Amino acid sequence: MKRDAFLAQVRAAAAAGRQYRVHPHPHAHGQYSPADDKEARVRFAREVQTAGGHFHTIETSDALTALLKSIITEHACQRAIVWRHPALESRGVYQHLDALGVSWLDAERVGQLPAAEQRAAWLAADLGITGADYAIAETGSVVVTARLGQERMVSLLPKVHLALVEPANIVPDLFDLFARLQLQVPDQLPSNLTLITGPSKTGDLELRLVTGVHGPQAWHVAVTML
Q1: Which among 1, 83, 90, 122 has the fewest CB atoms less than 10 Å away?
Q2: In the chain, where do the E strands start and end?
Q3: Average pLDDT per run of 10 along the chain, which is 226 residues long?
Q4: Distance CA 62, CA 136 (A)
């Protein structure tokens, strides 16, 4: 196929794909019109599970306690590293961990340790708990931005990662993610934006898919309705 014909097919396919996507109005000035919330949540849940993750809907404080207890028991978690994030603070995640007998650290607490002990403290964690800046329904991805108190290693180092997602932050697809980012931070994107889709995977070993080699073996996503 000639180059011009190939590019024409690509442009046609891209145009067809954009027809069903949600787009912000050019004069929205910070407003955003997502797809139906329930529809987006249902698709997000399905895609999280397709990617090898575990999806949960949390509607009460007791349900959050039960989820944390279940994850901690199933994976024998004794130590956690956590974000300092409104989604965790407002739902009492730190208090839940204390009640369940799990020791936890955040970046501030780690920073108070002797320098020689800080690396070991990060590496010793079994469970990492983060919030999420956004979530993408189309792919079941959680979007996290690294900043002070919300370090990337919390979602990368432990064998289990739990992400708490606000329903309002679920967007239909990648196009809408960048549209929303453009509305909220029009000058430039964050310096680091990570899309997490399922537990860690690699296919380098004999072309076989292996989970948990370079990161979390188990990935839990909870949409917090409380």
Answers
A1: 1
A2: 54-58, 79-82, 103-105, 127-130, 134-136, 141-145, 160-165, 170-171, 193-196, 201-202, 210-211, 218-224
A3: 75 61 41 62 96 96 96 96 94 96 95 93 96 96 91 94 96 90 71 90 72 85 93
A4: 27
Query: 224 Cβ partners below 8 Å, 6+ apart?
Result: 58, 64, 87, 91, 164, 165, 166, 167
CATH code at position 156: 3.40.50.10420
CA distance 34 to 129: 26
Domain assignment of residue 141, yes or no: yes
Range of the structural domain that residue 104 is part of: 39-224
The b-or-e profile of 199-224 (16+ CB within 10 A means b, else e) is bbeeeeeeeeeeeeeebbebbbbbbb
First to last CA, the chain: 55
Burial class (CB in 10 A: 0-12, 13-18, 19+), 63: middle
